[in-house]
Amino acid sequence: MDFLKQYWKSLLVASVILYLSLWKQPSFKMPDISNADKWAHLLMYAGLAFMMHWDLHAAGLKKWKLYFFGIVFPVAYGGIIEILQEQFFKPRSGEWGDWLADSLGAVAGFFIFPYALRLWEHIANKRKNRMSHA
After folding, report:
1. Range of the domain at 106
2. Would 100 be classed as within a structural domain?
3. Residue 89 has what pLDDT?
4. What is the band of 11 on the pLDDT scale with cuts at 50, 70, 90?
5. What CA–CA distance (Å, rounded) separates 86 from 80?
6. Cα gap 85→99, rounded to integer Å
């Protein structure tokens, strides 16, 4: 139960990605943006890796575990979903390009997290300082 409390945000993002990836293809047309589906993959996995980094950082994991679980898991998860799509969820198809976008998104989301955390802390400190001077 502690696992669910600690990692519920990451599990929620992973569950949403799984649902969107295995759900039958939407009937709506994707926006007329070049490679829109690849951008969607990149953003989903950036969100997953970002949230995993957040949860793992909060859990106080050692740096090597943070890197392993924060990058390797989202990359492997993307690959597994592509295989599942190809093998079991027709008309979905597994694509190398989708997995590459998943992987790039995972790496980007993982490495963006420390900068976002510093920005978050900077804003919180400014707010706290403003409140203490009021």
Report:
1. 36-133
2. yes
3. 84
4. very high
5. 10
6. 12
Residues 70-84 pLDDT 10s: 899 999 999 999 999
Classify residue 27 by its DSSP letter.
Answer: S
Average pLDDT of the residues of the chain = 86
Q: How many domains does the chain have?
A: 1
- Residue 4 in any domain: the answer is no
The structure tokens listed for 62 are 């050692």
Contacts of 83 (CB under 8 A, 6+ apart): 94
Query: Residue 49 falls within a domain, yes or no?
Result: yes
Taken in order 70, 43, 113, 11, is the CA torsion positive or negative?
negative
Contact by Cβ (8 Å): 65, 41: no
Dihedral angle over CA of 106, 69, 1, 84, nearest 10: 60
pTM exceeds 0.85 for this model:
no
Neighbours of 95 (CB within 10 A): 15
How sure is the predictor about 36, in pLDDT bands with cuts at 50, 70 and 90?
confident
Nearest to 75 by CA among 95, 104, 52: 104
